Amino acid sequence: MAASIAALRKLTWFDRRMLAESLLLLPMTSLALRWLPLRIIRVVNDRPRRWRREPIDRARANRIAHMVAAAAQHGPYRASCLPQSLVLQFLLRRDGMRGELRYGVRKIDDAVQAHCWIELNGEPLIDSPQVHRHFAVLERSPSCESR
Known about the structure:
- The structure is a single chain.
- The protein has a domain of 96 residues.
- It has six helices and four strands.
- The chain has a four-stranded antiparallel β-sheet with strand order 3-2-1-4.
- Helices cover 51% and strands 16% of the residues.
- Helix 2 packs across helix 4 and helix 2 crosses helix 5.
- Strand 2 and strand 3 form a beta hairpin.
- The protein has 147 residues and is α+β, with helices and mostly antiparallel strands.
């Protein structure tokens, strides 16, 4: 416990804010996914924003991703990849960065596994850069757009 408090004290104010927002947004997003179609949530997440014209601050994006992952792994609510990705996309877009949501599938033995992640300029955040080797990326969103 003392080690975690010491680690929190070392965080910058920006990191603390991202961690606090992630701790709130992850369970809210998971709850929304239970009650609303994914396409509705994506509409909210995909609202037009002002995009940065200068080069993307990759270090800042990595800090945001790190805080979302920390909240998902160590917070009171353990979030799966979809809520993590949606929260990360929201926080990035609010900061002026265009994170793209990717869906992937793979088959291991007789089981089909799905995973999603966020890419910034074609590079995954949170996940390893080799995520493309493990999952076949779906070109269209599995959000049942024909409803």
